[in-house]
Amino acid sequence: MDYLAALDLLHDRLKPDSYVEIGCREGRSLALARCPSIAIDPDFEIRFPLRSPTRLYRQTSDEFFSNENLKELLGATVDLAFVDGMHKAEFALRDILNLETYASRSSVVVVDDVLPEKIEWTTRERHTTAWTGDVYKVIRFLREHRPDLDISVYDIEMKGMALITGFNPGDRTVQKHLARHEVDLAGDRYAYSEIEDLRLAIAPEPADALVDYLADLRTRRRTMRVVPKQDAQTGALYLDLLKRSLLNEIYLDDELRLLYLRDCLAGQDSFDYAVLHNIREARLENLEDLKASRRIGRFPDRNIHRSGFSHTMMGRQRLDSLHACLDAVSAGDVPGDLMECGVWRGGGCILMAGWLRVHGDNQRKLLVADSFEGLPKPTHTQDGKLDLTKEKFPELAVSKEAVRENFAVYGLLDDHKQVFLKGWFRDTLTNAPTLQIALLRLDGDLYESTMDTLQALYDRVSPGGIVIVDDYGALPMCRQAVEDFFAFRGEAVPPLTHVDWTGAFFVKPC
Length: 510
Prior knowledge:
Layout: H1 3-14, E1 19-22, E2 37-40, E3 54-57, H2 61-67, H3 70-74, E4 80-83, H4 89-101, E5 108-112, H5 137-145, E6 150-154, E7 161-165, H6 178-186, H7 195-202, H8 209-224, H9 229-246, H10 252-265, H11 273-277, H12 279-282, H13 284-296, H14 315-331, E8 337-341, H15 347-358, E9 366-370, H16 400-409, E10 418-422, H17 425-428, E11 437-442, H18 447-457, E12 461-469, H19 476-489, E13 497-498, E14 504-507
Parallel strand pairs: 1-2, 1-4, 2-3, 4-5, 8-9, 8-11, 9-10, 11-12
Antiparallel strand pairs: 5-7, 6-7, 12-14, 13-14
Helix pairs in contact: 1-8, 4-6, 9-15, 13-14, 14-15, 18-19
């Protein structure tokens, strides 16, 4: 299989919505495109009939990306791209990084010339009829510096071909030291003098394996695509109903009845069946207070012992904000899992599980971390005498089994996608089974718990990922932990968005 047959197979199996080609020359490969296309080459001379609407730019790719907005030109993100430019590794790297800016997780960038047949073809200047240059170096480089990318190399005739997916437009880890990386690529660091060593390092798959890979890739791309409008509307209605259920907004009158009966048993009120029967009118002021407490995420009468029967303490404003943050990491194609540290009855994680189900997102795990025994005794000086242990506040201690049952009653328990981490944060989070986190929610209350979470997990949050701090406004020791964590790193606290009287979040800088 030569590179044209492989490209034709890509177009046929993936059916991309848009196509970009860097280095189109005579248009031989460009003619295979069957969707709106953009081609970039400083010296193109198209000799083959193009079957799709195509805009040609007679300039270098560096000039193009300096002057043009690819997303505006395409009206969408790049779906499929082919890099066949200057035959030098640093140029190929810049092309890949520039394309990533306009890519999504499901985008595919194909790189030519990564598996030369002979070592003589790998010189940086052309001395042979067949010539690949040192583009192969970019494969080893990306595997080293961007392990989050999915890179597969196939033994396509003569020159090989790499397929790269899993892009994160917000990632700037390579760009921070791009000049140094380009020097390394142009030098000997990633070079080989024997073709056997080169092939061993690249570890290509046989060309025939491309067919099965594309079948799997096509399935995975479908799970990442935007939900159709009608399904999106249905999903929005479902998530709104899920939030109402988590907050017990639907049955607040029954909750008020139970609180009323408890007060009667405690001798703080007198029983009247008429009141029980028509609680909404008989205790209208109490009902309004209960509604307000659910809206802003405070206990009725600011009394933790009246925590009620909802599955979350967050309140409607913070639940809506969590929903918006999930949408933001999805729209930004931020890679990684979802995680909450400190889950109480599990409501926040249940909303995340519902969101994953609505969006058909099978790539992300959901990590549910809690002691499931309440909060630890305060041992850190910053926590003072704030004692939130289950001996003093049994309402805060919810067992792992109870949380799992709460997931189950919503039909959202899934042991294949959810990980329940039981134990104190200092013992469990360092070895938490996740390499990347797209959204991290902190609800540990104490200085120590907040600091333990940030120290164990912050470096795993993807650039562009979101960190939510539930108690930032309510508990000074929690806020102090966030400030001290970044001070220890010599960094400023990223700009915060305040959600309500206590919740806040920030986006991890790229």
